[in-house]
Amino acid sequence: MSNPGVLTLTKKQISPKRYFRVEDNLGEAIHFHYNDIRVDLTVRELLLIAKECDRAIYDLIPEKDFHIEDYDGDFLNRYSHCLIDLVGIEKGEILFGRLYGLRKGFFGLPVVRRVSGGGKVPEGRDAPGDGTVLEGRDTAGSVVLFNDSPVIMGDVPSVGAAETVPFIRMKFRNNKYSVGMHPWVQFLFCWDKKRIWNLMKKVYERIRK
Amino acid sequence: MMMPDYKVVVNILETGRYPYCAMDVSEEEISFLIPEDAESMVRDAMKGMKGWKKYKDRDTYLYSLKPMLHYGKGNCEVYYHFKLSCRSALNGAWVPLDRYINGSALKNAVMDVNMGFRVLSAEDAACYLLADCIYTKKSFPPAKRDVILRKIGKADRDMLKEKLSRVFFKFSGRLLDMAEKGEFDRIITAFFAFAEY
């Protein structure tokens, strides 16, 4: 309580009743919180645990061409639930202009747009020009594609349409996790327990405010 | 000091035998530490003083910390705090400093003959000013550096180290070292990069 220098390194609501959080209490200790349990660690111990987590990931994922260092930490965090279904990795280079990116369209619905821009997106609606980035920030490294989809998963780099970029294509069991060309359809009509829970939570928080 | 009006409040606090002390003093700003039961008396006193405007507080206060009172008149500002506190690094909310330091603050306040009112002890002042600069102001203004060095020079070394360790933990040794060497420009970066704990 008395340390003003508490930084949350990461947090995740694993399920409605399970919550995990890692805090850096500057100068004092690293805290792992799992519900009511707290584990105190030194910075060195945290780094050791991170290394052991890397090892555990490699043990869990059968695909031998998967390497953690090829991916951004945020990307791995966002798509960690997919990795257990990974069955293949393909690497190569692709013309950037042939790819698409995820962005928000009307009413915030997810839509797919070609990264190099196209005539179909009217002006005044965040219309990207040739080579303009739709979202995200500069990233070093490869773009990630899922299965046979041309949609970039994760950050979209700032690259000209005529340039080639390295890609990593992750192939999943039964073509799971692919993003179709009309993701707004799935958004509107496919609801699972987690989505319903998140929506109810947002409504409850709004009412409380 | 350009604000004689606050002395009215100081006189009232002393007449009412409330413990109080000044935490931080500058040309245009003064912060007082007062007990919670003196709040209504201070509010009434400031209301009765011409030209002083009470500012609304929109900040967040954690761990049951009572929001400070903030008054302004022209360029001058007065703050009344109920505990020594600083902004949290996480979200900028106000959090109280360790209870050992807050327990000592009013008890060990000393009379400053030049200023004519009570101020924090050297150890509490050094601790508070360092926390204020690192967490709240996020910089060390030149005037504050001189005050910090003066307070460190006057402080009881062991007590100062103990109190600093309640706020900065394992960084307190290095902090004291850097402050004494005048390396104020590097302190904040060094603190947030510190990993030896």
Keywords:
heterodimer; A: 209 residues; six-stranded mixed sheet; four-stranded antiparallel sheet; B: 2 domains; five-stranded mixed sheet; two-stranded antiparallel sheet; 9 strands
Give an account of the 3D structure.
The complex is a heterodimer of chains A (209) and B (197). Chain A is of the alpha+beta class and 209 residues long. Chain A has 2 domains: 6-60, no CATH class; 68-199, no CATH class. Chain A contains 4 helices and 10 strands; from the N terminus they run ββββααββββββαα. Chain A has helices at 43-60, 73-79, 183-189, 193-208, and strands at 6-15, 18-25, 29-34, 37-41, 86-95, 100-104, 110-114, 143-146, 151-153, 164-172. In chain A, strand 8 and strand 9 (151-153) form a beta hairpin. Chain A starts with 5 loop residues before the first strand and ends with a helix. Chain B has 2 domains: 1-120, Beta Polymerase, domain 2 (2-Layer Sandwich), CATH 3.30.460; 121-197. Chain B has helices spanning 6-15, 39-47, 99-105, 122-137, 142-154, 157-168, 172-180, 184-193, and strands at residues 21-25, 29-33, 53-54, 69-73, 76-81, 85-87, 94-96, 110-112, 117-119. In chain B, the strands form 3 sheets. Chain B has a 5-stranded mixed beta sheet with strand order 1-2-5-4-3, with helices on both faces. In chain B, strands 6-7 form a two-stranded antiparallel ribbon. In chain B, strands 8-9 form a two-stranded antiparallel ribbon. In chain B, helix 1 (6-15) packs across helix 2 and helix 4 (122-137) runs parallel beside helix 6 (157-168). Chain B is globular and about 50 Å long. The N and C termini of chain B lie far apart (43 Å). Classes of the chains: A alpha+beta (209), B alpha+beta (197). Chain A binds chain B through residues 1-8, 25-29, 42-43, and chain B through 63, 86-90, 95-99, 131, 135, 166-172, 191-192, 194-197.
